[in-house]
Amino acid sequence: MGGAGQLKDVIYPHAYVALLAVSFLDVAFTWIILSLGGQEINPVMRIVLLAHGLPGMVLFKFAVVLLVVVLCEEVGRRHFIKGRRLIRTAVGISMLPVFAAIVQLVLYRVTFLL
User: Fold this and answer.
1) Side-chain half-sphere exposure of 109, counting CA atoms within 13 A
2) What tens-digit pLDDT sequence spans the chain (114 residues)?
3) Helix (H, G, I), strand (E, B) or coil at 41
4) Is 47 among the domain residues?
5) In contact, 19 and 91? CB cutoff 8 Å
6) Cβ partners under 8 Å of residue 86, min gap 6
7) 3-state SS, one letter per residue, for 52-97
8) How far, in whole angstroms, is CA 1 from its chain's centroid?
9) In the prediction, which pLDDT does 108 show?
């Protein structure tokens, strides 16, 4: 689809949207938990958060997303199935902190109501 000077289409566009959405949820839930007095348990993100606050956390998170997309594109152009497996794994791993945050918020809500 691309001519001279145009970018090539990405290989796994729907998976990249999913990764971006899950990463957004991760940042949003993290910020909610922090605002309720919780703590960041990821040691790398904790350092970023302490040094640069929410803007640094958002920038770092989406730099990681960009790195994953670039890696998946590189792998996928050589080995489509391996690239697809890589992006699916990245989305799955990125969902773990979101699920953990949901559990924390539900438990906080239940404890708060008692």
Assistant:
1) 7
2) 455 555 579 999 999 999 999 999 999 999 999 999 999 989 999 999 999 999 999 999 999 999 999 999 999 999 999 999 999 999 999 999 999 999 999 988 777 665
3) coil
4) yes
5) yes
6) 71, 72, 75, 76
7) HHHHHHHHHHHHHHHHHHHHHHHHHHHCHHHHHHHHHHHHHHHHHH
8) 29
9) 82
Q: What angle do CA 44, 47, 48 make, to 5 degrees?
A: 90
CA distance 5 to 98: 38
Total domains in the fold of the chain:
1
pLDDT at residue number 102: 94
Domain residues for the domain of 76 are: 13-113
- pLDDT value at residue 5: 54
In a domain, 6, yes or no: no
pTM: 0.86
Q: Residue 97 in contact with residue 22, Cβ under 8 Å?
A: no
Q: Is residue 55 part of a domain?
A: yes
Neighbouring C-alpha atoms within 13 Å toward the C-beta of 5: 0
In a domain, 8, yes or no: no
